[in-house]
Amino acid sequence: MEVRLYFIFIYLKKQALESLMIVLALSVGIAVLTTVLVSYLGLNQQLHEYLQNDHYRLFSVTSRGIQNELSLRSAPPISPDAAGEDPSLDLNLTDLEEIQNSLPRGMFAFHTQSARFNLHLPRELALTVTGTSTGFYEFYRFPLLVGEWFVDEDLEKGTPVLIVSAELANDLFGVENALGQTISFENRGISHAYTVIGVLEAGAGEYHTVYVPLGSPLFPGTHLHSFFVGINGERNLVQALEEIQGLVHLHLGDGAYVQNNLTQLQEELAMMRPILRNIGLFASMGLVIAVINILNLMLARILRRVKQAGISMALGSSRLEVFLQFLGEALILGLISALFGMAISYMAELWLQNTWSIAVYQVSVALRFLVSVGIGGIASLLFGFYPASQIMQMDLVQALRTDVGGS
């Protein structure tokens, strides 16, 4: 094997310019195809990762008059002040509970309202108080360090309880002493004391955000003009959207509208895929043309070395060994082209990102390497197998008598 590789590299070095032209022609085609295939695989991987994100597993239900006004990009979501919303969709907490009871398993309906309050503690502190329902916790599943989340009974009674972050609890009371402590909020000249019943684990939630039940003193109004439906990671999003639309229409009629960022994502991917397919098709055609030309060149190279092959067989080499030597030359050229193609593909993606600000989803180096080597291997087999197979069909005596351009 070592001897065969040695002679392969000796001949490639002898025909360096010719070999370089083959490598350049192949590497450009491999680079384009690698970029297209890697981008296509990256889009699918990106879609899979997005669909596991809460951002895409959250549906907003609003009146048709305020479509696209709710943001699904924050976690937890914050809805506009109820006073500024379109009154055509008017629900209360009981309606929201009925909708929750009608949703399939793994779907959670909830509403959120937020307001900011300045506290006069030993130091000035601004907190965002988010009033929400129990479905919020069932969807996000924020881990609790101590205590518990509020329950439906707290919403019905308007119990003034709250959940705080571990960092905030530690700064105000110390985590171990936080449960049972009170924080007072002043709203329109009236002070409302809320009791801490739960502390989130470190890193869960935001430092300045606390969670309280809707219906409690800071959020006494029960008129809800929008709500959210979150679904867990086990359910299909497209199917979930259809189910939610059907249930919303059943409960709220045509005045309600369901929106989700999944639709926009699918539209963007639907636009990208045909473009990548067309680029890949033209790149494949170019690579096939290059392979045909390289095949003719390799055939000419082998015909110039017929006498060399005859001498090798006369000295004891089998037809298979001679075949493998010539095929090995093609495979090595294909491998070198694949490495160059992979480098060109990577640099092209960096250029698109830095010069044109075109976002290209980055995949692992291992995947890019496998794609490039796979394309290079297939291409080298296509232009190397036929010329090498001609050696196996030669007559030994005729090969020794042949002298086409020397070896």
Write a brief structural summary.
By secondary structure, this protein is of the alpha+beta class. The chain contains twelve helices and eleven strands.
Molecular structure report:
With 407 residues, the protein is of the alpha+beta class. The chain folds into two domains: 2-50 and 271-401, no CATH class; 58-232, no CATH class. Helix content is 54%, strand content 17%. It contains twelve helices and eleven strands. The protein has helices spanning 2-14, 16-51, 93-102, 134-140, 152-157, 166-172, 237-252, 261-303, 306-314, 319-356, 365-392, 396-401, and strands at residues 58-63, 107-110, 112-120, 124-132, 144-147, 161-164, 182-187, 190-200, 209-213, 226-231, 256-259. It has a four-stranded antiparallel beta sheet. Strands 5, 6, 7 and 8 form a four-stranded mixed beta sheet that branches. β7 and β8 form a beta hairpin. α2 crosses α11 (365-392). The longest helix has 43 residues, at 261-303. The chain starts with a helix and ends in a 6-residue tail after the last helix. Residues 67-87 have low confidence and may be disordered.
In total, the number of domains comes to 2
Overall pLDDT score: 78
Largest sheet: 4 strands, antiparallel
Summed up, the helix count is: 12
Q: Could you give the order of the helices and strands?
A: HHEHEEEHEHEHEEEEHEHHHHH
- List the uncertain runs: 67-87
- The helix content, as a percent range, equals 40-55%
What is the spatial order of strands in the main beta sheet? 2-10-1-11
The assigned structural class equals alpha+beta
**Beta-strand content bin:** 15-25%
What spatial form do the alpha-carbon principal axes imply? Answer: elongated
**Rg:** 34 Å
Our measurement of the CA-to-CA distance between the termini, rounded to an integer number of angstroms, reads: 21 Å
How many strand elements? 11
